[in-house]
Amino acid sequence: MFKKMLMVGIATCSVLTFSFPTQSSAHANTHTVQKGESIYKISMKYGVPAKQLQAMNNKSNVEIYPGEQLQLPVVPSESEKDLLDRLVEAEAKGESYAGKVAVATVVLNRVESDRFPDSIYDVIHDGYQFSPVLNGTIHQPAGNESKRAVQEALAYQGYDRDSLFFYNPDKAQSSYLSSQEVTTVIGNHEFLR
Q1: Residue limits of the LysM domain (predicted)?
Q2: Crossing angle for the helix pair 78-91 and 144-156, to the nearest 10 degrees
Q3: What pLDDT digit, counting tens, does each position of 151-170 carry?
C-alpha cells in the first residue's frame, strides 16, 4: 500500500513539474568563455549562428578569451514565443511587416538591456508598458504574418539593439518618450532609444 501511494505521489509531482509553461528564457543570456572554446563551438552549443553571436558582442573578428562574458541571443520557450507572437499581433495590427518585426525587436532588445527585466514574459508584463496586456487583446491568437515577424526578429538579434521603445504619437502622448532619440519611424510608430 505504501509503495502504491509513493508511486502515485511521484507521478503527481512529475505531472505538476512538467505541466506548467515556463516563463523564463530557455537559457541564460550570457556565456563565460572557457579555455579551448571558439565562437563556432559556442554557437553550436546554443544553436545560434556564429555571425549572430559575433554581432551580439560587437566582434569584428572571431577572437575570444577565457573568462570573457559573451551575450547570447534570447531563445524563447514555446510559451514565450506564443506570447511575443500575440503581443506583436495586438500592438502592430494594421502596421507593415517591417513594423511588426520592429515591435518584436524592441521586446528582445529590452530582454538584453540592463534597464528592463531578463525574460520575454517579464518584459511584456512589466507594469504599464504594453496596452494589449492592459486591455486584454494580448489573449487573442496571432496571425501568420505576426508569427513570421517574430521569427525574423529572433534571427535578427544583435544586428539592431538600439530601439527600446515605440509608440504612436497620434494615439498616445508621453513627455518621456517624446524626449527620447528617434531611431526610426515605421508606419504610425516611432521607435526610440
Answers
A1: 29-72
A2: 110
A3: 999 988 877 768 999 988 88
CATH class of residue range 78-192: mainly alpha
User: Considering only CA atoms, which of 178, 40, 189, 172 is closest in space to residue 106?
Assistant: 189
Predicted confidence (pLDDT) per residue in 30-66, tens digit: 899 999 999 999 999 988 889 989 988 989 899 999 9
Q: Which of 165, 174, 168, 173 is nearest to 189 (CA)?
A: 168
C-alpha–C-alpha distance, residues 109 and 90, integer Å: 19
Query: For residues 164 and 115, is the Cβ–Cβ distance under 8 A?
Result: yes
Enter the C-alpha cell of residue 188: 504610425
Q: Which three cell numbers stand for residue 178?
A: 517624446
The whole-model pTM stands at 0.75
Runs of H (alpha helix) within the chain: 2-19, 39-46, 50-56, 78-91, 97-112, 120-124, 131-135, 144-156, 175-178
